[in-house]
Write a structure and sequence with these properties.
There is one protein chain. With 380 residues, the chain is an alpha/beta fold. It has helices spanning 2-18, 104-110, 128-135, 150-156, 171-178, 194-198, 201-207, 211-232, 259-266, 286-293, 308-314, 322-325, 343-347, 352-363; strands at residues 44-49, 52-57, 68-74, 88-91, 96-98, 116-119, 140-141, 143-144, 147-148, 160-163, 183-185, 240-243, 245-247, 250-254, 270-271, 281-284, 298-300, 329-331, 377-378. The strands form 5 sheets. A 5-stranded parallel beta sheet has the order 7-6-5-10-11, with helices on one face. Strands 15-12-17-18-19 form a 5-stranded mixed beta sheet. It has a 4-stranded mixed beta sheet with strand order 1-2-3-4, with helices on one face. Helix 2 links the parallel strand 5 and strand 6. Helix 8 (211-232) packs parallel to helix 14 (352-363). The longest helix has 22 residues, at 211-232.
């Protein structure tokens, strides 16, 4: 009975998804319903069928009311008539332009970095491997994400342009689509779960027909993250932590449901704003932060500072915090690429296992005595 129910449910799901009848004579290709292969990411769905993959980006930007669906068709693959209204891209692609440094690690981990031919503001890229290609003239500048150079991109004719949107108003993207270029919106930056962000490597795996490799890479990261969580559970205390810093006349701290806050929670820290509701940053006065966080044991991610002196020069009152006095301030901004790009901004979302291990080592050094933090460095 259970088996029959599952079969019936699968057929009904297929009919609902594709809006066709079992005996529809116009439907030339039979397809079987499959499960979404994405587990943690909230804004990405992948459905793999014989000859093509249905890729859905369901949350391209915060508060989006609709998403994007793409057909990734393999050579000689046959796409059902009911899906032919969707944008179609032949895979594996041979050339790509990406517009966020967070996309670079996925290409390198998959071993397809040589297909990158364009990027906006290449100085932000930190990876030494991709920087060599930039220095060799193999990666062209294509403007900035909000106003990509349409003429250059049309001349380059990449198989795919992967970009991101802040909202639905981007005339540059519309113009590129009208020019016949394949433009895909990537929403990895909207994810809050550490493993959810990392799982977007499957987005790129699908573009290159490297789904198996992408799955294996993610599974390894997931395993490492879960092992780190098991280590963190051995902590016997939860030291207090503050984060963020002043920008103009406000102090911005990660909200309790944000990506940064979840890392601290997983590392068994008592982040002082972990109970706040929201996914972005909380704007506070200096006085409120000082009142609550003056005696916090650790200060994690104070901003783009690389020394205590630099912090004090920026705001003399930073020196009044106990974490500053005790030199327990840790920053991601020390580790930079040759052009000044911060490695954390590029790689952290792809390697959450390293981020959480860094934080466990800092907050509970006895649990990982032989581990040397990769992203976060103690400010001197």
């Amino acid at each position: 009975m259970k088996s029959n129910f599952l079969i019936s449910f699968a057929i009904l799901s297929m009919l609902f998804l594709f809006g066709c009848k079992p005996n529809d004579a116009k439907e030339k290709t039979k397809i079987s319903a499959v499960a979404n292969s994405v587990m943690y990411a909230k804004g990405l769905e992948l459905y793999h069928y014989k000859g093509f993959t249905l890729m859905k980006v369901t949350n391209p930007w915060p508060e989006a009311t609709s998403g994007f669906t793409y057909i990734l068709k393999q050579k000689n693959g046959i796409v059902p008539d009911s899906l032919k209204h969707l944008p179609e891209i032949t895979v594996p692609i041979q050339s790509i332009v990406v517009t966020s440094t967070t996309h670079i690690p996925a290409l390198e981990m998959l071993g397809v970095e040589n297909t990158l031919i364009g990027f906006p503001s290449t100085n932000f890229i930190s990876s030494s491997k991709t920087r060599k290609r930039i220095n060799a003239g193999k990666v062209r500048e294509v403007g900035v994400n909000e106003s990509l150079n349409t003429e250059v991109l049309i001349d380059m004719k990449p198989d795919a342009i992967v970009t991101f949107g802040i909202n639905n108003n981007n005339s540059t993207i519309d113009n590129l689509k009208k020019s016949g270029l394949n433009v895909l919106i990537n929403g990895d930056w909207t994810e809050q779960s550490p493993l959810g962000k990392a799982e977007w490597i499957k987005f790129f795996g699908a573009l290159y027909n490297l789904d198996s490799r992408a799955n294996n890479l993610f599974n390894s990261i997931e395993t490492n993250y879960i092992k780190a969580l098991a280590i963190a559970k051995k902590a016997t205390k939860n030291p207090t932590v503050i984060s963020g810093g002043m920008y103009q006349d406000q102090w911005f701290v990660p909200q309790g449901e944000s990506w940064a806050s979840l890392f601290l929670k997983d590392a068994k820290a008592n982040y002082l704003w972990q109970d706040s509701k929201g996914f972005g940053s909380l704007s506070l006065s200096f006085e409120k932060v000082f009142e609550k966080g003056q005696n916090a044991e650790f200060w994690i991610a104070p901003g783009d500072f690389s020394s205590l002196k630099q912090m004090k020069d920026s705001n003399i009152h930073y020196a009044e915090f106990e974490s500053f006095k005790n030199k327990k301030v840790y920053s991601y901004a020390v580790n930079k690429g040759p052009k000044g790009g911060i490695v954390y901004f590029e790689l952290a979302s792809a390697r959450p296992d390293l981020v959480v291990k860094d934080l466990i080592r800092i907050i509970h050094p006895e649990l990982l005595p032989k581990y040397s933090p990769f992203f976060f460095k103690k400010l001197e």
